[in-house]
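Figure caption, in words: inputs first, then the predicted bound structure.
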Amino acid sequence: MKIQALDLHFQGIPETIASYLVIGSEGPVLVETGPGSTLTMLKTQLAQAGYHPTDIKHVLVTHIHLDHAGAAGWWAQNGAQIYVHEFGARHLIHPEKLWASASRIYGDKMQTLWGEMLPAPPERVTAVRDGDIIEIGDLRFEAIETPGHARHHHVFRLGNIAFTGDAAGIRLPGFNFLDIPAPPPEFDLETWLTTLDKLNQAQFSVIYPTHYGQVKNVSEHLAQIRARLQAVAEFVRVRMENGMSRDDLVVAYTEWNHELARAAGVSESGIVHFDTVNPLYMSVDGIMRYWRKRAEAAQSAT
Ligand SMILES: [Zn+2]
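Bound structure (zinc ion present):
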């Protein structure tokens, strides 16, 4: 078994979004497809690894966000079987709703960022549930339910390693800084903390976040992500309670994150890498929505 990160050079920036090539006894398997906008780069990288697109018969996606599964439909139309969380399956078959939902976040930048999202033929989509085993030759992937970043999220365990999608946060190579992607509408602090416990208990020797590459100090990484997660949620909660507007919160949250990044030695261009893969306004909207939903739920319970 061999694992290779294919660098999709998202928006021309190296090492921000990976598609993982896992080579087993029945040939190569892709974990994550990246968006439609990086499909050409993915094929180039695949060719450099010695493979043709028709060699790809199986594709696993951790969740259906466009930076992870935007190109899944193309692979399905070209004969690959796509394995996706049961909640996400219908969105790959009928991507219109997902596209519309992403448009609310990204506005007129949709095409530039994500390219095209093609519908997957239904027979090419396998809906996966918690604990399901996907066996491809000598590769045995186990789907682990890992909500928090999104409800429809799986981490895929392969032996004592795991492909963590966004569930273990973002860490870009060469930077000693971690980032939390907390998009609307499904970001949920509590379930994400439970997910981090679950990942920690699994004692993986190595994890592969989609953003980006191999992480070996797994328990330390997870502890740091937990602290960051709590900090970002708290930052937004306190300011919401003080009546800060959404736009002012975006400014404050951005300044705060950039200061933290600089203090950790991240260069100005490095900050652009992080912001490209994880726009900070998106996390403000996701966290604000989470706290509002919580407040509404508490109110309707009384
Ligand atoms: Zn995501």
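The chain has eleven helices and 13 strands.
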